[in-house]
Amino acid sequence: MRCILLILCLAIIHIIPVYAQPADIVKTEGITSNLHRDNVGTILFSSKDISLSKLKESDFLNTYKLTNKSSLFFIAFMGNSITNYLHRLAPALPADSLVKIGNYQFTLFVDNRLVYQSNLFPGAPYAKIQDSATVINKPFIDNDKAYGLWSESFWNRFMHFGGDSALAEGKHLLKMEIRPYLKAGEIKVGELIAAGNLNMIVERKPVINIAKIRLSTIKPYNGFEVSNEKFDRNKIKVLKGNIDEGIFKKIGSIVVLKKGKLLIEEYFNGETRNTLHDPRSVGKSLASTITGIAINDNYLKNENEELKEFYNLHAFKNYALAKENVTIKNLLTMSATFDGNDEDDNSPGNEENMYPTDDWVKFTLDLPARTDTIKKDWHYFTAGVILLGDILNKIVPGGLEKYADEKLFKPLGIFNYKWQYTPQNVPNTAGGIQMTALDFAKYGQLYKNGGKWNRRQLIPKEWVNKTFTSHKQITGRNNEFYGYLFWNKTFLVKNKMFEAFYCAGNGGNYIVIFKDEPLVIVITATAYGQSYAHPQVNKIITEYILPALR
């Protein structure tokens, strides 16, 4: 009898195919805790940012209220790392190749209807994390911090591509699935890694009672009188209510000048008149300002001077004559021949490749030259502005910081400001200066005045005119242009065109100088890395501020 059973077992084993998984290609963190072990393959949700070591079952949500101010985090407990999951899809490829062509596939359902699916771009998170991590603990929405993480970008895309309408007011079921995918010719998707559900109550349309909203009483400021001009106060009250209720997110301040006087001044999210705002690339425009002043003082001949006048390019990698012939004007107009484009993740000169280095100037000058259309076309190149700052620091007496203080800030009555610095302790012209909103407004009004302040010509009027010239068409945008480290566009409000030159920075930071209207608008914000940052500011200007001033 035992013999017969043995024969039968062997036969069954022979018949049933064996699906052995390929051995892991990288070492992972493994199962990190009892909580992890009990929830392998599960996605759970929390309203708080809690580290893995402190997470407990009571932190996870069964029901979640989605408002404009609430935050939402997901925690995916996996049995392996994404690199090893990708290895199962392509066993012949090495680990470093897998993470270049594959990543997570995130899918979100609302009420059991597929709303959005995204194959996350390779490279986020970093390869070493993809190799080791068996838990993902990331925010979809984080209204407290301003990280702009890849997971938040995914949620913003979900909201843009159907999530906003799917999550109408009321009760909903949110379902999330994670799979691995590879793109090698065609896209290959693996089996389910983790999944989870969340009951949601959506309350994103608060009632704004303008009768309870008070606009700030404006007081004079050094350099500004208070305007007596009329405007639609109810329109601005609605705007203020939308910001207070989180419909417009992470706004710090709004300042409006009309005819050089303070008309509107509002602060949000704990910020005040004395807050030093970090407007990121708004600071690039200051490099243009100092360049114009330095030319007027004869420390530079003109903006057509070439890099060979300031650097021995033979001492750097990838020497090319084209690099020697790059002009100051090329740096001002984002049209230098260097292989650097911040809008291209694969560009060697992308700013994210520069920041970890210990010499940003050397990083830039080591870059290869491009011989294709990038030589002529506009391409956003932060490292080029670092070069410009370094040149200015070399040629002006006492260095850039002292020169800017004496020639620009002190004459404007700006004393409360803070520079950030490059690794060589040079002021960071890539966008490293912090000021109050009112002092940024002074800077904007200076340009509105044609470079004059208190009857003193601080910036040559000719330089202001050159700056406010549409030198380059912005790549990929209709009717948007670039001057000398200033942007140019036209706002459309009820069939009326409002042309403006403006400074812009990550997070939704703007100084807007209108060409044909006696207006300067400053908006500061901390929505760094968020896809909604710039669109929401455009909406604030076109649907609230400009209509209120007509």
Task: Write up this protein.
- The protein is α+β, with helices and mostly antiparallel strands.
- It is built from 17 helices and 21 strands.
- The chain has three domains: 182 residues, Coagulation Factor XIII, Chain A, domain 1 (Distorted Sandwich); 186 residues, DD-peptidase/beta-lactamase superfamily (Beta-lactamase), CATH 3.40.710.10; 139 residues, 3-Layer(aba) Sandwich (Beta-lactamase), CATH 3.40.710.10.
- The longest helix is centred in the first third of the chain and has 17 residues.
* CATH architecture assignment of the largest domain: 3-Layer(aba) Sandwich
Q: Tally the beta strands.
A: 21
CATH structural class of the largest domain: Alpha Beta
Q: What strand order characterises the main sheet?
A: 11-10-21-20-19-18-17-16
CATH topology category name of the largest domain:
Beta-lactamase
Low-pLDDT sequence parts: 1-19
**Helical content, roughly?**
25-40%
Distance between the termini: 98 Å
C-alpha Rg, in Å? 28 Å
Q: Can you tell me the number of structural domains?
A: 3
Write down the overall mean pLDDT.
94
